[in-house]
Write a structure and sequence with these properties.
Blueprint: H1 10-23, H2 36-43, H3 47-59, E1 63-66, E2 72-75, H4 81-92, H5 98-119, H6 122-135, H7 142-160, H8 163-175, H9 180-186, H10 189-209
Antiparallel strand pairs: 1-2
Helix pairs in contact: 1-3, 2-3, 4-8, 5-7, 5-10, 6-7, 6-10, 7-8, 7-10
């Protein structure tokens, strides 16, 4: 499956070859890679070079490494968590601001609600309804209401049936208010009331347009 590589960029080429095998479905989730010794022989490099490449693949979420008698490097299941983590990292590094995050959310939410109206099943509708009902008594509690707001956006994206939107909402929701002081200063009582009314309108429009299950 793999071919010998040039020593000048050995680790990177090992990563590239294993990535291509995973993306081409030559390796499937749960498949065990050869041992470090076997990979080193196949690639024509040292075990240390192989180990470095495996660390990179693990950091990218493409493999998981287990230790012990039944251990080894295994192809990881597909997950949107890496997308979410990338957004989180950019926010924490100040490459994205909270205002930019709010602006992006406003643009994306209309399309998310449209998809949710088309795809939401009874369970999704019930979760959204419970979220709106739960938020109403929390209007005087900035932090708790902010948490409910995040939950609503996550559930809306989940109802839309789009993994990218779901990953984005989960991570941006958890990072959009990294400190309680931000939520307090940015969520006065009137804004919380308007937010809850907006959820109710959006939920009502979605349920009216959702196909009967």
């Amino acid at each position: 499956m793999f071919t010998p590589i040039r020593q000048s960029r050995a680790s990177g080429e090992i990563v590239s070859q294993i990535e291509r095998a995973i993306f081409a479905a030559e390796l499937s989730p749960g498949d065990r890679l050869q041992s470090e010794r076997e990979l080193a022989e196949q690639f024509g490099v040292s075990r240390i070079t192989v180990r470095d490449a495996l660390r990179v693949l693990e950091a990218r979420g493409l493999i998981r490494v287990k230790v012990g008698a039944m251990g080894g490097a295994f192809v990881a299941d597909a997950s949107t968590d890496r997308v979410a983590e990338s957004i989180s990292t950019l926010i924490k590094l100040k490459r994205m601001t909270l205002s930019e995050l709010a602006e992006a959310r406003k643009v994306v939410e209309a399309a998310t609600a449209e998809l949710a109206a088309q795809r939401a099943d009874a369970a999704a509708v019930s979760r959204l309804q419970q979220n709106v009902v739960r938020a109403r008594p929390l209007l005087r509690e900035p932090i708790t209401h902010a948490d409910a707001s995040m939950d609503f956006h996550v559930e809306l994206a989940r109802a839309a049936g789009n993994e990218v939107l779901y990953a984005r909402s989960r991570r941006t929701g958890s990072c959009s208010c990294p400190a309680s002081t931000i939520c307090v200063t940015r969520s006065p009582a009137e804004r919380r009331r308007r937010r809850t009314r907006s959820w109710s309108r959006r939920f009502g429009a979605m349920t009216r347009r959702a196909p009967a299950s």
